[in-house]
Amino acid sequence: MINKYFFEIVSVLLTSSTIFSLELKLALFEQRVNRESLKLLSKLQSSSIQQCLPHRRNFRLPQQSVNPRRYQEGQALAILHEMLQQIFNLFRANISSDGWEESHVEKFLTELHQQLEYLEALAGLECEQDSGTLGRDNVRLQIKMYFRRIHDYLESQEYSSCAWTIVRVEINRCLFLAFQLIRKIRK
Amino acid sequence: RRMFSLLGATTLVLVAGAPWTLPAAVGGINLKSPQNVEVHIIDDTFTLSWNRSDLAVGNVTFSADYQVPRNDTWLKLPGCQSITSTKCNFSSLKLNIYEEVKLRIRAEKGNDTSPWHNVDAFTPFEKAQIGPPKVHLEAEDKAIKINISPPGAKDGIMWALDSSSFTYSLAIWKNSSSAEVRTKTVYPRDKIYQLSPETTYCLKVRARLLPRKIGAYSPVHCIKTTVENKLPPPENIRIDAKNDIYVLKWDYAYENVTFQAQWLHAYFRKIPGSESGKWRQISDCANVKTTQCVIPQNTFQKGIYLIRVQASDGNTTSVWSKDKRFDPQLQSVLAPPVINMKSTNDVSLRVYISAPEESENKSVNQHYSVIYEIVFWENISNAERKTLEKRTDLTFPNLKPLTVYCAKARALTADERWNKSSIFSDPVCEKTKAGNTSKTWLIAGICVALLSIPVVSYVLKLLLRCIRYVFFPSSKPPSTIHEYLSEPPLRNLLLFTSEEQTERCFIIENTNILTAVEEPDQAGEDHKKYNSQTSQDSGNYSNEDESNGSKCGEDFPQEEAE
């Protein structure tokens, strides 16, 4: 729940309206995606999680590389964009698979898509020159690698419902990291 | 053997020109490593190319190795072993495209080999170039439908994670002569509008991937638009938001037609080839005869939608209209603010602006950073004053007394990109108070007086303190002394007091020598001397004693006080 006063405080603090609107969208986004992803997860019964425990896998979320403290705002935006893009990619192909409640996935994708559009509309992302400074540990690549592992895992598990359960829990972790980036950008 | 040595000699001659390239010959032949070795990656095709160094040497083959991180051994690069040409394809190797890989290549002839030529380590994904996308076109009378498949093979790994991240830019021109080229960013499934019927258009498309990759153009495709349809599609589609409904409107020139409308989640546009069959009917707009229909607001949740409308006259149907992008969040209405006005005594009016109260149809003002435009005018004249304010509390000073003024306000989004504004609030009018200048002065005077009271009292207080300091000095010792004093008595009480005091009493009461011997400290010795000289002069003695710094503190404050 977003504190009502939050906006007032922020509007005073932020002189740039551009940042404000982004900030606002991100704030709303965080709230909504969180809600949708939680709904997605809440569809899982604890028993199904229990029975899927043996299928757990360490996908090696690049937590250190994505540590928001390491990046400037522009870079954090780029990383966030990549993460959301990949999450979108992961779920979009399987909208109607696995008997998920389609509307929830749809809502989730809608939120992701809207946010991606907003992020892309920011001119900063277009000329992301300084991502070169990320150099060897290019974070975009690390994120891609992480999602590659997830895709490979799903494939090896033949997209079983347990595999999806594990992946959904994992994506929630990933979103948590994305929210940290959002908070960083908001600062 | 002779042949070999001859060859060897020629190579040596050749080498002489570039003596840095080679170490000692192996087995009589100086094979040189290949030069200008380059890796090319387009989509999922990996090629390695190089130049031969020894053109004179026949039957030379080339072989390459590769090395991946966390593995020190070099492995044979499949597809690049014993190659006689100067190019090989190693696409069959399944690499982790996001990790660095190292390559090396050498020339071979029989048992002889050249030194390895090392290729700089590279990350396949970084190195990869985007190939041309595949394009499928479909003509309408005034538009071309375009369907783009992402570059690379369908099951390719290079862009597997990015197939929906591509953006496409399109260049289109009329086939006839040197017509201008229009460029446009398109979705994988999109439509190019504003074309002429029965005209051949040519276009090419290339893919882009953030942050920096720009792909190669597809081959040029040409297509002729069809004969103009009898029934044109509806145009100029727009959506107005009102309280709890959306009104979908469009323009149409002909009578006696019915319309239908559909919507689609805009994200389907990002997913190649998935759009068909995903469009959903807007039931409230089915078979309407008017050029508008009313949609309940809850039809659309948050998100981005596409809406299209089609006309039909029973026999034929028009093509679909241009898709209208619709973001309910942006569509939502700003509610007008509520204003209050109060006249103040100094012939000013104070205006308070507050956000509208939340009703059923939630105002979204709280979602935006808003500024207010306030229009202020004298009731009888038309001269208006307009101000843009972020504050919600402002004063219009220096007005005419006993005059009615009115104000109204509207909310605007501070961010111009949203470009939203509310309607004006109802005007509020208020009469200014009788502007009595003497009265104002009186008030000002009182204010000044009130303000000056603390100042004056403070100055007085300071003065008083000075006087007291000069004429009635404080009876208290300075703090350092006080500090010094505050401790000894305690200590005396606890430890020595009894001893010393009894002893002193002894001295005064009895004759001197006996007790003096028993005194341990220096002060005691002093006692002895004084006592022996002036046994009776107790006041003098004690004074001396104290100024020596002895610990007999009880008398001290009294002495000071004197």
From TrEMBL, chain A:
Keyword ATP-binding included in the entry's annotation: no
Chief place of localization: secreted
Keyword annotations from UniProtKB, A to Z: Antiviral defense, Cytokine, Disulfide bond, Secreted, Signal
GO biological process: defense response to virus
Cellular-component GO terms for this entry: extracellular space
Subcellular localization(s) per the UniProt record: Secreted
A Pfam entry, by short name: Interferon
Hydrolase in keyword set: no
GO molecular function, one term: cytokine receptor binding
Domain of life according to the entry: Eukaryota
Family: Belongs to the alpha/beta interferon family.
Protein name: Interferon epsilon
Organism of provenance: Suricata suricatta (Meerkat)
TrEMBL record, chain B:
Keywords assigned by UniProt, alphabetized: Cell membrane, Disulfide bond, Endosome, Glycoprotein, Isopeptide bond, Lipoprotein, Lysosome, Membrane, Palmitate, Phosphoprotein, Receptor, Repeat, Signal, Transmembrane, Transmembrane helix, Ubl conjugation
Covalent link location (Glycyl lysine isopeptide (Lys-Gly) (interchain with G-Cter in ubiquitin)): 528-529
Disulfide-linked positions: 80-88, 202-222, 285-293, 406-429
Lipid-binding residues (covalent, S-palmitoyl cysteine): 466
Membrane spanning residue stretches: 441-464
Gene Ontology MF annotations: type I interferon binding; type I interferon receptor activity
Topology class, membrane: Single-pass type I membrane protein
InterPro entries assigned: FN3_dom, FN3_sf, Ig-like_fold, Interferon/interleukin_rcp_dom, Interferon_alpha/beta_rcpt-1, Type-II_Cytokine-TF_Rcpt
Domain Fibronectin type-III: 335-435
Signal sequence bounds: 1-17
Subunit structure: Heterodimer with IFNAR2; forming the receptor for type I interferon. Interacts with TYK2. Interacts (serine-phosphorylated form) with FBXW11, the substrate recognition component of a SCF (SKP1-CUL1-F-box protein) E3 ubiquitin-protein ligase complex. Interacts with SHMT2; this promotes interaction with ABRAXAS2 and the BRISC complex. Interacts with TRIM10; this interaction prevents association between IFNAR1 and TYK2.
Function: Together with IFNAR2, forms the heterodimeric receptor for type I interferons (including interferons alpha, beta, epsilon, omega and kappa). Type I interferon binding activates the JAK-STAT signaling cascade. Can also act independently of IFNAR2: form an active IFNB1 receptor by itself and activate a signaling cascade that does not involve activation of the JAK-STAT pathway.
UniProt family annotation: Belongs to the type II cytokine receptor family.
The protein, known as: Interferon alpha/beta receptor 1
